[in-house]
Design goal:
binds magnesium ion; 6-stranded parallel beta sheet; 15 strands; 2 domains; about 400 residues; Rossmann fold; binds adenosine-5'-diphosphate; alpha/beta
Length: about 400
Amino acid sequence: MKSFKELSLPAPLARAIEELKFDVPTPIQASAIPIALEGKDLIGCAQTGTGKTAAFSIPLIAKIIASPDSRALILCPTRELATQVADVLRALTKHLPNIRGVVLIGGASMKPQMRGLSQNPSIIVATPGRLTDHLERKSLNLSKVNTIVLDEADRMFDMGFAPQVEHIFKFVPAKRQILLFSATLANTVKKLSDRYMHSPEHISVGEVNRPALKIKQSHISISGPDKNEKLLEVVKARSGAILIFSRTKIRTDRLSKFLKTNSVKAVAIHGGRTQGQRERALEDFRTGAYNILVATDVASRGLDIPSIELVVNFDLPATREDYIHRIGRTARAGANGEAISFVTPEEMRDWKIISGEKPESGGGGGHSHQKSGGGRKNNFRPRRGGFQRSSYSPAPRSERSSGRREARR
Ligand code: ADP
Ligand code: MG
């Protein structure tokens, strides 16, 4: 498939794709969409930034148009990711007011989610934790779900969601299509697919365990106490958007404070901040109000942050997989990008493995687990009867005036 036109998609969906300026399908979209449209189970592996969201959203919407009783469930590892998937769905269903959706995520009150559910949405986007809560409260009926999407499956399992995902499967009819997307084909992903999927088609685009070639990667040997000053130097030498990764919540906060006291505008995002704070930070970064985002790994996967010039690993990630995900935030959709990693003398051996210089000797673990949960606001109002928009999520893309995003198009 070379163009979306070849698919003869229903007109309202085709028009939405056009309006998103998706002229040419990305490789994962070109391989995945036709298979998914046939109703087959699918495992799609591709690096971040390759357009996986539309790869599952387009066939899923086409299926609902063809049989309006269809129900789809999309599971995402984090709230932010769920919100972003909902943004894409909202844009794609712009001209399909009868397709409603609801977003079920932690850090949000149950009531509006209940209301959204009572309107019999066609699409549920959820984190496994919150979805399980709803199942326990019996506020949710999954007996009509005939499509399940597992987005960022490897991340979801890294975060310990495998038992919840398996539990959720029990509530879904056995006759269902499963679309699984992942950046890496981890063992946990293989195990789950063996158990639950029916002769899935495997698609793997690009070298899954290799970061995009357009990313210029380098490291700086440095001792811990010198990192702050070095960071200032690196940051001040650039004007574009920079994403800085640090290991813990406390370090993330400290680092953003340090940058601020040195007149560098920075915002922080990590699991310890309230939902509202996280949303504000992300949005400020997206719109370019702040050029620098300091984050823990909770922000390292799936977030669609356009045009990052540089990723700084202020602290090294725990694994090579995490490294690939982190630096995958830059050089998205074909742009050029750069990644700089700070490596202390004690970390030099780890760095060789993380950077891919030396092959990994098995064993994962050591991930910082960000839990999706906790409790705060989360309001969902139907917008023109279409895909529900959470009150906190950023404005739909078409309405956003992001200089950066515009520049990219
Ligand atoms: P992934 O889930 O693989 O990390 P996303 O689905 O978040 O990637 O897409 C990454 C970026 O590419 C987004 O900004 C999205 O709008 C853009 N994109 C997706 N598909 C296309 C396409 N066919 N043409 C142009 N841009 C696209
Ligand atoms: Mg994604």
